[in-house]
């Protein structure tokens, strides 16, 4: 495509949803839309310089724009809030295989304990399905560094899930003991 407008339109049509989805995981809807718009404005200005594949570059621009919006603690909390917002009351009542593998509340609590960089490394691999080379581009590091970060993030998540599950099991046991004591008192 020689026409810059056609090239940009094709780029926008192909990647808008991915960039917006990336931003929505990290920010409020209005902020995410603004970041997405600014990302494509940067792409328009640098249309002749865009690398292939372009999606990791676009996500990297969006990431940098989001970094300007909030400090790291605020971004991490917003991400956890967005994931929690995806769950409805119906989701917790309806039977779901994933609920039997890891309780959603436990998973969200474990994610909330992780540094934002860990959550982002896992989201790029799992949620966005990016290969390590592209995820590394988004995070602004080498592929080797990304792979190490992802490995460590998964280990930290595993430890956090075990800790959350143990805490939840202890709470369930104490409720069961309390219930048993009330039952014995009533009898």
Features:
187 residues, mainly alpha, transcription, Arc Repressor Mutant, subunit A, 0% strand, RNA_pol_sigma70_r4_t2, 2 domains, elongated, Rna Polymerase Sigma Factor, Chain: A
Note down, in words, how this protein is organized.
Helix content is 80%, strand content 0%. By secondary structure, it is mostly helical. It has two domains: 1-69, Rna Polymerase Sigma Factor, Chain: A, CATH 1.10.1740; 96-187, Winged helix-like DNA-binding domain superfamily/Winged helix DNA-binding domain (Arc Repressor Mutant, subunit A).
Q: Please identify, by name, the CATH architecture of the largest domain.
A: Orthogonal Bundle
Average of the residue pLDDT scores: 81
Tell me the name of the CATH homologous superfamily of the largest domain: Winged helix-like DNA-binding domain superfamily/Winged helix DNA-binding domain
- Largest sheet geometry: none
Percentage of residues in helical conformation: over 70%
Approximate strand percentage = under 5%
CATH topology of the largest domain: Arc Repressor Mutant, subunit A
Number of continuous helical runs: 10
Rg over alpha carbons: 21 Å
State the separation between the terminal residues, measured CA to CA: 82 Å
What is the 3D form? Answer: elongated
What is the level 1 CATH name of the largest domain? Mainly Alpha
Q: Count the domains.
A: 2
Number of strands: 0
Poorly predicted ranges? none
The class by helix and strand makeup works out as mainly alpha
Element string (H = helix, E = strand) = HHHHHHHHHH
